[in-house]
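Box 4.2: Ligand-aware structure prediction
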Amino acid sequence: MRIYLDHNATTPLRPEVRDAMLRVLDEIHGNPSSVHAEGAAAHALVEGARDRVAEAIGIRSWGPSERLVFTAGASEANNALLRGGPWARRGARIVATNVEHPSVQAPLEVLAAGGVRVERIGVDAEGMLPEGGLEEVLREPPDLVTLIWGNNETGTLLPLAGIAERIRDAGVWLHVDATQVLGKYPVDLRDVPVDSLSLSAHKLNGPKGVGALYLRDARRVAPWLLGGGQERGLRGGTENVPGIAGFGMACELVQKEGDARVSAYAALRDRLWHGIEARIEGVRRNGPADAVLCNTLNVEFEGVAGEVLLQALDLEGVAVSAGAACHSGKVSASHVLLAMGRSVHEAGSCLRFSVGYGVDATQIDRVLEWLDELVQRARGAVGA
Ligand SMILES: Cc1ncc(COP(=O)(O)O)c(C=O)c1O
């Protein structure tokens, strides 16, 4: 039996989600845009799922220009927002942290090459915004601020409510990448005044290739897929009805299980960290101990190559993720860990463990036993 501790990369499908999707695949074959009964059934399903996703982020009633647009995932949502607003024009100014996900980083690079001024707020050693960092960039209000709420690599959670209020008071559009947050921390847009938000179903036990972009005022963003005018004209193309139904069910489960799920994940994550601390010397946790996603633990194992440890764990049947990736023989360190002040060498000694659905305490204890032995062995190999 494999032990999967890489839930920040993606999560397994919940049986309830699978059932909801199978029902659509077997029974609902209409096109949501068709006017006959088959079309109406598919349309009702998509709109029901939209309500489920909206409820999971605290939306109970819709403003006239407020939209939740289904996308093919959070990468599409981030790209559409960043490249589709008035902030994408030459001479505009965008502010972002230097720990954003590649689906934000890459469009920002394209925008910068096209004459947009892209400014970065550096993070501190725990991945948090430094005191006064926001005030500094808001002194001359930018056109857009884009922030990753919960970091996929370290789990660092920004104190978004206060940040969002300050940005709203400055009259600036705030885009938030909440991909890692939904299902692991309460997301309630009635308390957090963001203007747009990206989500992805496969991070919360839904299907891959489905996500959403929430827009408080859709008039500010240009349509990004032209076609049959679906998604209120913003994203043409026949909707991924089974995927959307699965996303809706995954959000319904988040709503139902909310706090219980968060505490269960946190207990497993803490068991893992306390076990590592107690058994293995020369370890350091990356990111804050409190303001962190309930399921995420990023650890530096001094003197051990993360990739080697990752592969050794994989051979034992444990899936985790490393702080450096090897592409075509070249090792590139995590930009997030480097931004937090780690050296390339330190970033290369880090592993990310992310727990989730299907993980239990027995599995964590088994991982601890292997980890202890594998780290000692790897250190021996380094010293030899
Ligand atoms: C923070 C963050 N943003 C965006 C994405 C992209 O999501 P998707 O795989 O749905 O395109 C991910 C997924 O890795 C993520 O962790």
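In the box above, the bound molecule is pyridoxal-5'-phosphate. The longest helix spans residues 241-279.
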